[in-house]
Amino acid sequence: MRRFFVAGNWKMNETVAEAETLVKALLPELEKYESVDKAVCPSYLAVPAVAGLCKGSSLKVGAQNLFWEESGAFTAEVAPKMVAELCDYVIVGHSERRKYFGETDETVNRRLKAALGAGLLVIVCVGETLEENEAGQTEAVVTRQLRQGLADITPEQADSITIAYEPVWAIGTGRAATPEDANHVHKDVIRPLLVEMFGKERAESMRIQYGGSIKPNNAAELFAMSDIDGGLVGGASLKADSFVEIIKAAAMVTIIIEESEA
Ligand code: PEP
User: What's this model's pTM, rounded to 2 decimal places?
Assistant: First the structure.
């Protein structure tokens, strides 16, 4: 049975106090949608407060990045075991990390291995820029990012990985990919590559989120596509009502799928 996974990436937003207010507004609402896996990813500083509030609830907590070394002289970095103390999830390879902070496929791979080693569930982000898209390079870029980012990962480890396909031109622009275009990349590019790397059964159970301007008004049509297994949500996760609406859309699509399969 398909189970959607929707995660909110708060990016560099929400002070600790604001994060607490937001999560307190989310918790009673989100508990209604138990058929959907859900997480929020606050800034590191807000993680302890948010993790404390979410304890015992179905809302999981993720970090937005981590470093691959275990400890030592790496000023301002956060080690895998530090993240794992408080978080279930971590995001690696977000396009903003790639664009502004020198993230490469190789460093994504190092972070991924370290995160898995610490027992974290990992959201690995891939996606092409506007120039790459317009040059017809989407497939080549996503394939390279996945092959290199997921290098040396075993099929067993793949169970702990979610892929987030986030076309860079759709992030924060209000211009989401069409459900058909996004699903094409999920179904015809990412899924077959996962099959090749991890085998059919595992690849089919791995979740591929779409990310890029998901809003309450487009979430259901995206989630209704065959290979879109949830979403990574930026801007719309910063408002309790819009994030709840997106989770609700995933729950509604779950019911529709269940009914069609019954
Ligand atoms: C993101 O940051 O991962 C994202 C998808 O942002 P937005 O929803 O604002 O486009």
Answer: 0.98
